[in-house]
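Example 312, ligand zinc ion.
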Amino acid sequence: MNRLLLSSTVAAAALLLTSASAFAGTGGVDPDQPAAPGEQSGGAGYGAPLVTLPGKPRLSAQKLSSSTVNVGSQASVVLRINRSKGTSAQVRIAIARNRGKTIKYSPGRISTNRSQVIRLPKLAAGSYRVTVSVFGASAQETVRGGVLKLTVKPKSVAKPKPTTPSPPAPTSGVFPVRGAYSFGSSGARFGAGRTGHTHEGQDIIGNSGLPIVAPLAGEVRYVSYQADGAGRYVIMRANNGWDMMFAHCQYSSAAVKAGERVSAGDQLCLLGSTGASSGPHLHFEIWPNGWRDSPGTKPIDPLPQLKKWAGN
Ligand SMILES: [Zn+2]
């Protein structure tokens, strides 16, 4: 019997606390507000209308403008404080960071009986519990709103561009020019200055008509012509994924067609001087991620690989 009485008392107290913390609307009951004696004796019991003390503020509405903001921007709380006496009320906002310190923010006196937007200070990224307190004339008149949950999102870090891993360098292969050659002077190197661009390959100087062969097995992609540049040229894709360019071939010397499979050592064309060329040479390029397939693809210096194929 006693036990039952006790538990129902606890339940009533819990109910009281729930309604106190919610502060849902103007009809909310403040637990610390004394009931008028008449009401208590009248047997109306819990929930009966209570006398509102003049001037006691009520937090009739409170919400965050947005429950999520990006770091660097300010969250705001929209408040409406109703008060029958006076035109303002003192407000304090506690901003508690999860597993962190609580920031006490005092926006000062807020006009009552109309909605007000209060901008919160800039906050570091994290999760926060925002609680608004409104002060009346005495401690008994202080009201506190329910917890508003705020998330401050960190700056979105730009995702690093996915870089296509370059295919591994081949462990075998043959030198693309059959016959005597030289790598020329500094102007023949990869990266050497050219008008409006840099040299994207390595020049291999040799006699006109020397066979130019596929250094690796693969497939011919293009056999084409560029009058003011590469002249007659062949592009092939090796089985390791590399694209290779062979430029300035002699006219009518192409020994392959686009789409044709080639083995290492198969002849592609003959060394020449077609296009923008000042003398017989092979202009050779390596593009590990495709020859001009997308703006991101770039050629590499082919000289180290050429030296390997040359056996030194
Ligand atoms: Zn060149």
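Summary: Residues 1-45, 47-52 have pLDDT under 50 and may be disordered.
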